[in-house]
Description:
Elements: H1 3-17, H2 28-41, H3 60-70, H4 81-94, H5 97-108, E1 114-117, E2 133-137, E3 140-148, E4 158-164, E5 175-181, E6 187-192, E7 201-212, E8 216-217, H6 223-240, H7 254-260, H8 266-294, H9 302-325, H10 328-331, H11 335-342, H12 353-364
Parallel strand pairs: 1-4
Antiparallel strand pairs: 2-3, 3-7, 4-5, 5-8, 6-7
Bound molecules: flavin-adenine dinucleotide.
Amino acid sequence: MNLDAYRHAARAWLEANAPSEAYPEGEAVARAKEFMARLYDAGYSGITWPARWGGQGLTQEEERAFAAEARRFTLPTYVFSIGLGMTGPTLVERGTDRQRERFVRPLLRGEEIWCQLFSEPGAGSDVASLQTRAVRDGDGWIVNGQKVWTSVAHHADWGLLLARTDVEATKHRGLTMFVVDMRHPGVTVRPLKDMTGRANFNEVFFDDVPVPDEHRVGEANDGWSVAVTTLLHERLSISAGVGMGNRKEDPSSLEALRRAADTSDPLVRDELVELHIRTRALALFNRRLAQEAEAGVFPGARGSAAKLLLAELTMFQADLATRLTGPASVVGGDPLSHAISLAPAMSLGGGTNEIMRNIIGERVLGLPPGPRVDKTVPFKDLKVGTQG
Ligand SMILES: Cc1cc2nc3c(=O)[nH]c(=O)nc-3n(C[C@H](O)[C@H](O)[C@H](O)COP(=O)(O)OP(=O)(O)OC[C@H]3O[C@@H](n4cnc5c(N)ncnc54)[C@H](O)[C@@H]3O)c2cc1C
């Protein structure tokens, strides 16, 4: 099928299948799963993912064509965003064939929801200092510890968990990545409300949770390199808006602000133009990274630049929306006030702006790294709180 025909078919499918309004709260996840199954069966989930593991095996061209059409609709894909943007690509790149066989297709079809279990109360920016332990137990492992800020964990069937498996090694070397069953009775999930008033992330406790060795992703004690794969995909998928949905109704979009603002004022026009330029520049940068990835050029740390640009654009947009629509918009309880109060989260989730700048400085620009004393010392000898 040529690209025009593909795009027309995608548009027709979306017009017939995209929900016309948000699902009622109590049934939102079940209905989102039904939608995802239809999306997959129609061939629009996992467009560029390998056909061998349940994807469509198509190119970035088709992916972009579908995304361009999808932007005109409100797709209920948020709850799948961690699986589609982060844990799924990690399994495709770093999992065993058995893991890919077992997990990828149900993830793409929305049958199973995923979360990413990296951050801990004492390990966010410096995630390699995490203390959740996985200890060998016969053929498998036993996990104990606590994670925090875990998006969609309250709906998740599976989690990609980074745990410490060797305290004698230096902190980046003694980590291992696992797939953990979020439905196990030893897993406790407690929702946390953010400042929008909604609870999209959670704290998660693990009490003697068994994990079979076949659910280990990558080699034992090589979890950091797997985590780097996940974090790279996280930054790229956040900046490309994977699974974010709700584009059509973005109340702080350029179109919405143009309607709300007094565009006879040249200063207002100036700011709207800046919003347009920044949005367009980020879209082109994302497109370039996607084209390079398709040509086999690894975006590496430049993914952090895309994520930083999006975080800064989101704050600029929220600030502009507040100034153009007045202070009442921040406390209105409507979609605009929700978008404004959600904006700062973009500069934290997936790594803070400061951490993105550190990465860009060191790995893209080649600036000298800050002094680090923790690269050569065994984890057990580091002072990072109480170590079990
Ligand atoms: C909406 C949202 C969703 C999230 N979802 C998930 C999820 O699904 N899974 C998950 O594992 N985590 C998730 N997180 C957690 C997120 O990754 C962390 O919040 C983030 O990495 C920062 O860690 P922290 O909150 O512990 O802050 P800290 O690391 O304590 O940082 C505090 C401040 O110090 C600054 N800082 C720290 N170190 C440095 C340094 N070396 N140089 C300069 N400045 C520094 C930071 O930039 C920040 O301003 C989510 C967070 C948010 C906001």
